[in-house]
Amino acid sequence: MDLLLKDKVALITGASRGLGAASAATLAAEGTNLILSARDKDALTAQSKKLVAEHGVRVVTAPADLTQVAISDSVVKAGIDAFGRIDILVNSAGASQGGLFWEVPDQVWQDSMELKVMGTIRMMRAVIPHMLENKSGRIVNIVGNTGVQPSPRLLPGSAANAALLAVTRGLGEELAPHNVIVNALNPGPTRTERWTNLMAKQAESSGRTVPEVESDYTDQIPMDRLAEPEEIGRLAAFLSSERAANMTGACLTADGGWTKGIG
Ligand SMILES: NC(=O)c1ccc[n+]([C@@H]2O[C@H](COP(=O)([O-])OP(=O)(O)OC[C@H]3O[C@@H](n4cnc5c(N)ncnc54)[C@H](OP(=O)(O)O)[C@@H]3O)[C@@H](O)[C@H]2O)c1
User: Fold this and answer.
1) pLDDT tier for residue 128 given thresholds of 50, 70 and 90
2) What are the φ/ψ torsions at residue 34 (nearest 5 degrees)?
3) Whether pTM exceeds 0.85
4) What confidence tens digit (pLDDT) does each residue in 131-144 have?
5) pLDDT tens, 203-216?
6) 122 Cβ inside 6 Å of ligand 1
7) What confidence score (pLDDT) does residue 263 get?
8) Residue 180: pLDDT above 70?
């Protein structure tokens, strides 16, 4: 299936590694031009060079710390200055930490809300006026299945995800008449740097090994494995495409069958 993404322009946050980088790679392979954002300039430059060399697309980088209030406007401006428009926004910046609820300090909760929730909200708020002007837009929020099925040791991220699912649902309805669609992608545990770090921290604090801690999660996953970032990147590309044009305010779950329930 041709996703009809050639020559589109996508802005991706969290693009220096993990699910954002995997989404960027899939979109580049489809011929989409890219604006890559994250804090690590060197990682963004390396990503950019690789994608240009492998796929011949145009790529600009927009380094930014999305916890800074006005920064999303400058990221969007960098994209508009380079390409004249932004067709797609993929929000993948996030770094929520976890732990035993009674040991998790305020700062961890605040960081999760500031980056994942407010970072995503501010990026959408900055890009939507341009999409409305173009009468077209696709927004994919990489959220997480813990927003539907909270994970006891990952509650700051679970709460952030639940908030983003609510915003995605409501905004999908608001923007539907304008041909701007907004969907969430809910991965389960996926083998990225973030996941590896989370497991290392949980192992350290519990005095167990990483495989033991990780099996607490995989034992609950019917497919009995983590997802690979590329699997999630392909779904982000699908949701970014015209092929998903009748979906909005929806949530696509990709968690190896972990999340229970049908609603
Ligand atoms: N991996 C999983 O198992 C999983 C499952 C469900 C949902 N998710 C969600 O998917 C999203 C991506 O996760 P991931 O696993 O790909 O994580 P990751 O490998 O740690 O990548 C996170 C990305 O966010 C960027 N970032 C972190 N802090 C930032 C800040 N202050 N400002 C701007 N960018 C920032 C990082 O780049 P810099 O450090 O260069 O800024 C990086 O590109 C997160 O929201 C996560 O909650 C992940």
Assistant:
1) very high
2) -130, 145
3) yes
4) 999 999 999 999 99
5) 998 999 999 999 99
6) no
7) 65
8) yes
- Strand (E) or helix (H) holding 15: none
CB 138 near ligand 1, within 6 Å: no
Residue for token pair 């991706």: 12
- Which pLDDT does position 262 carry in this prediction? 80
Q: How many angstroms does the Cα of residue 172 sit away from the middle of ligand 1?
A: 23
Relative to the CA of 160, which ligand 1 atom is closest? 47
* Dist. CA 15 → ligand 1 center (Å): 8
Q: Where are the alpha helices (DSSP H) in the chain?
A: 18-29, 41-55, 71-83, 106-112, 119-134, 155-175, 193-206, 210-218, 229-239
Task: Classify 180 as helix, strand or coil.
Answer: strand
Helical axes 119-134 vs 71-83, angle rounded to 10° = 30
What atom in ligand 1 is closest to the CA of residue 13? 34
| 23 CB-contact burial (10 Å; exposed 0-12 / middle 13-18 / buried 19+) | buried
What domains, with CATH codes, occur in the chain?
A: 9-189+229-247 (3.40.50.720)
pLDDT tens, position by position, 58-80: 999 999 999 999 999 999 999 99
DSSP letter for each residue of 30-86:
TT-EEEEE-S-HHHHHHHHHHHHHHH---EEE----TTSTTHHHHHHHHHHHHHS--
